[in-house]
């Protein structure tokens, strides 16, 4: 006879609570709300990205932008290894193309030292960082099949996966890096001539990725993981790429525009809620807000839609879906332009200048149960919530609302869209939203982002380039009567003030470089 064990439903149980998703990922203290896991590092394989191609095709810009994207949106430790910087550190500045001649034995010896220093650091970085992504940005280290094979062999022992990204620009050729340290103090014309020679020397030795070289019949790199890209022609070849982060990389790179573009960010004009210190809501503009909206429309005409030669250039306008941003954009002129097709000049299409596109993704951080309250009311009615927010403004999620981390997660697609377009963009948004986008472009950390100053009545102009991001602030409107409140003067803790000071100092520092 068998006795089945029947569980006693009244038996004592041990309490074992489920942690909020993502809460355990928070470092240093306990987070009680869940955190979007998408913005924490995925436990992916370590991996190494080798960016190759001829000089002047945009490898450095792509490497740096990719590094920033992975760091900010995917929280992975990333390091860019720029071989030219190693060369300058080890051998000094080379402003004569003779050093890039493949038959120059002395140069080859120097380059061998540079290459092994760079590779050794890369291997050390990969070994020291779980989830680390190393990006090798080099025209010389990656130039031939033999050199690429050497990289694979050097990295093999770390267990990191290697992916090659070959950048080419068949239509435009190359861009002379006049601001490179190699040409400091060199006349533009001389720099141009030297750089042309340098590129020619590289052409002599460069073996395109996975193309049979020197009369050989066989392709040798078909089993490797790679992405070949020509952004100008929008031509991409993908080979053996798999994995979450790897495909995020591909997604980002394919959407990148390699031509420089300008961004203009503006908060909405003062809203009726701002005027009485209430957060959130969906109110319309106050009289001061409307006055700013007129100023903004003038600014667009004088600073955005015309180029230096006075020609109207296509430009874009994005708002959130909320009343206050749409009302702020309402006076911006929407002229019709005829645009010539890039490939076939006999074709034209119509472009509506600054046609507003409203995004829910750009809506202000949602304060949930606290929406529509003043900071004082929140402190009075939800003292615990208020205190929690001041301890960790980045991860704190309002009851039934959002945190800044939630906002970061929903802004990733916006950044991809911003990178995809080439036209100047005016984004009329909200304080919390612009803080995150600004922090991404200015190289601030996520923790610094919630404290960045984004004042009303001001347009922030950013021009990202390979080496930095240039910022200009345009104050467009001073209210005739000083505002009683615009919702920005929430009481701050010491930690918040210090974080604000750090973010400010970093911003000033970034601008001075
Ligand atoms: O006060 C204006 C506002 O845009 C609010 O709607 C929003 O809650 C707040 O700013 C975001 O700023 P902070 O995160 O500093 O409270």
Major beta sheet, strand line-up? 2-3-1-4-5-6
Percent helix: 25-40%
Q: Based on CA inertia axes, which overall geometry fits?
A: globular
| Total count of strands | 14
Pattern of helices and strands: EHEHHEHEHEEHEHHEHEEEHHHEHEEH
Unreliable segments of 5+ consecutive residues: none
How much β-strand is present in the residues? 15-25%
For this entry, what is the oligomeric state of its chains?
Answer: single chain
Summarize this, please?
The chain has 14 helices and 14 strands. With 513 residues, it is α/β, with parallel strands linked by helices.
List the helices and strands and how they pair.
Layout: E1 47-52, H1 59-74, E2 78-82, H2 83-91, H3 105-128, E3 133-137, H4 145-156, E4 161-167, H5 188-205, E5 225-230, E6 235-239, H6 244-255, E7 263-267, H7 272-275, H8 287-303, E8 316-320, H9 323-328, E9 336-340, E10 348-352, E11 356-359, H10 375-381, H11 383-391, H12 404-420, E12 425-429, H13 431-442, E13 458-464, E14 469-475, H14 494-512
Helix pairs in contact: 1-6, 2-3, 10-11, 12-13
Bound molecules: 6-O-phosphono-beta-D-fructofuranose.
Task: Tell me what you see in this structure.
The protein is α/β, with parallel strands linked by helices. 35% of the residues lie in helices and 15% in strands. The protein is built from 14 helices and 14 strands. It has a six-stranded mixed β-sheet, sandwiched between helices. The protein has a six-stranded mixed β-sheet with strand order 11-8-12-7-13-14. The longest helix has 24 residues. It is globular and about 75 Å long. It starts with 46 loop residues before the first strand and ends with a helix. 6-O-phosphono-beta-D-fructofuranose binds next to helix 13.
């Amino acid at each position: 006879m068998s006795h089945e064990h029947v569980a006693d439903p009244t038996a004592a149980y041990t309490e074992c609570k489920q942690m909020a998703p993502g809460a355990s990922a928070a470092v240093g203290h306990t987070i009680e709300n869940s955190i979007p896991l998408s913005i924490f590092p995925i436990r992916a394989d370590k991996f190494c990205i080798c960016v190759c191609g001829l000089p002047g095709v945009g490898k450095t810009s792509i490497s740096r932008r990719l590094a920033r994207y992975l760091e900010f949106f995917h929280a992975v430790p990333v390091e860019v290894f720029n071989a030219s910087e190693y060369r300058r550190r080890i051998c000094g500045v080379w402003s004569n193309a003779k050093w890039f001649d493949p038959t120059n034995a002395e140069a080859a010896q120097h380059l061998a030292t540079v290459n092994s220093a760079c590779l050794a650091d890369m291997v050390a970085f990969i070994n020291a960082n779980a989830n680390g992504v190393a990006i090798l940005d080099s025209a010389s280290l990656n130039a031939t099949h033999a050199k690429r094979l050497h990289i694979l062999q050097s990295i093999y022992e770390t267990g990191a996966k290697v992916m090659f990204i070959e950048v080419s620009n068949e239509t435009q050729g190359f861009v002379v890096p006049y601001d490179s340290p190699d040409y400091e103090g060199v006349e533009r014309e001389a720099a141009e001539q030297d750089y042309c020679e340098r590129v020619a020397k590289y052409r002599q030795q460069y073996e395109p990725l996975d193309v049979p070289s020197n009369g050989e019949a066989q392709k040798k790199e078909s089993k490797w993981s790679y992405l070949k890209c020509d952004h100008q022609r929008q031509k991409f070849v993908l080979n053996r790429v798999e994995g979450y982060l790897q495909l995020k990389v591909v997604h980002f790179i394919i959407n990148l525009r390699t031509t420089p573009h300008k961004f203009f960010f503006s908060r909405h004009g003062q809203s009726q809620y701002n005027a009485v210190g209430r957060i959130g809501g969906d109110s319309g503009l106050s009289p001061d807000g409307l006055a700013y909206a007129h100023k903004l429309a003038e600014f667009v005409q004088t600073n955005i839609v015309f180029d230096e030669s006075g020609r109207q250039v296509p430009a874009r306008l994005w708002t959130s879906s909320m009343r206050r941003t749409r009302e702020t954009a309402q006076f911006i002129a929407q002229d019709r332009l005829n645009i010539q097709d890039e490939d076939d000049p006999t074709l034209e299409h119509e472009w509506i200048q600054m046609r507003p596109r409203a995004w829910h993704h750009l809506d202000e951080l949602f304060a949930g149960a606290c929406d529509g309250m003043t900071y004082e009311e929140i402190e009075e009615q939800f003292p615990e919530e208020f205190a929690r927010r001041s301890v960790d403004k980045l991860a704190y999620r309002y009851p039934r609302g959002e945190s800044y981390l939630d906002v970061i997660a929903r802004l990733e697609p916006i950044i991809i869209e911003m990178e995809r377009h080439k036209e100047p963009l005016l984004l009329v948004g909200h304080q919390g939203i612009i803080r995150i986008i600004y922090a991404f472009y200015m190289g601030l950390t996520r923790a610094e982002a919630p404290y960045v100053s984004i004042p009303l009545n001001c347009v922030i102009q950013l021009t990202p380039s390979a080496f930095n991001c240039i910022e200009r602030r345009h104050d467009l409107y001073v209210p005739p009567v000083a505002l009683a409140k615009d919702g920005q003067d929430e009481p701050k803790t010491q930690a918040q003030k210090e974080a604000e000071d750090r973010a400010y100092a970093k911003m000033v520092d970034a601008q001075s470089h």
